[in-house]
Amino acid sequence: MATPDASEPTTVPLAGWESHFADGEGFRASDDRELQLLTQQLPSAAGARLLDVGCGLGGYAAGLARWGYDVLAVDWASSAVAAVRDRYQDLVPNLTAQRLDFTDEQAVGRLGADAFDVVTMRLVYPFFTDKRQVAERVRRLLRPGGAWAVTTPLAERLSARRYIALSVGEVGELMSGWDSGVWVDLEPGGLRCIVLRR
C-alpha cells in the first residue's frame, strides 16, 4: 500500500485494504494491558453491546468479547470480516462480524439508534475524511450513558506518518460536544485512547 505524503489528506482505496487484510496483514496488536486500561473507562461489560468500527483482523474485538462485551465487529473490507469470522468462531455469539462502510449513512442507520453501549475505533478514526459526520453517526448509535473510545497515535509524536494520527487540535475537536471525556496514554510518546461519554 502506498504511503501518502504527511501533509495531504488521506483516503486509502478499498482495494488497498482488501489486499492488506487478505494477505493476513494487521496493525499494531492490542495487548491485555491496553484492554484493561480501556475497559476501566467503559460501561460495565455485563449485557453491554459494543460496536468495533474498522475491526481489521479482529484481535481487538476478540479481546473485548473475552472481557464480556457482546461485540459486533465491522469493517469495509470483506477480507477483514472473513478473517474475523474464521479466526474467532469460538467466540460466537459474543463476537459477530459483518461488512459495513461507516461512511454510508443508510448502512449505518440500519444498525439502529441507541443500539450500542460502546463504540470503539482503534487506529481507524484518522482515516475518515469527514470526522464531524462520523461523530454524529456514533452519537446516534450510542445509548444514553454510552461511550465512544477512539485509540490513535498523536501526530505531534509521529510526524513522518502524520496521516495515521490526530493532531492535538483534532483531539480537541473530537472531544467537543460530549458530556464528558477522558484519555489514557497507552504507551509513552505513542498511542492514546480517548473515551467520550454521551
Task: Walk me through the structure.
With 198 residues, the protein is an alpha/beta fold. Strands 3-2-1-4-5-7-6 form a 7-stranded mixed sheet. It has helices at residues 14-22, 32-39, 59-66, 78-87, 105-109, 131-141, 168-175, and strands at 49-53, 70-75, 95-99, 116-122, 142-153, 180-185, 191-197. Helix content is 30%, strand content 24%. The chain is built from 7 helices and 7 strands, in the order ααβαβαβαβαβαββ. The protein is globular, with a radius of gyration of 16 Å. The protein has one domain: 3-Layer(aba) Sandwich (Rossmann fold).
Task: Describe the structure concisely for a colleague.
The chain is α/β, with parallel strands linked by helices. It is built from 7 helices and 7 strands, in the order ααβαβαβαβαβαββ. The longest helix has 11 residues, at 131-141.
Helical content stands at: 25-40%
Tally of individual domains: 1
Radius of gyration over C-alpha positions, nearest whole angstrom = 16 Å
What does the overall shape look like? globular
Extended strand count: 7
Counted by DSSP, the helix tally is: 7
Q: Which oligomeric state applies?
A: single chain
Structural classification: alpha/beta
Task: Report the β-strand fraction as a percent range.
Answer: 15-25%
Task: Report the biggest beta sheet as strand number plus sense, adding barrel if it closes.
Answer: 7 strands, mixed
CATH 4th-level superfamily: Vaccinia Virus protein VP39
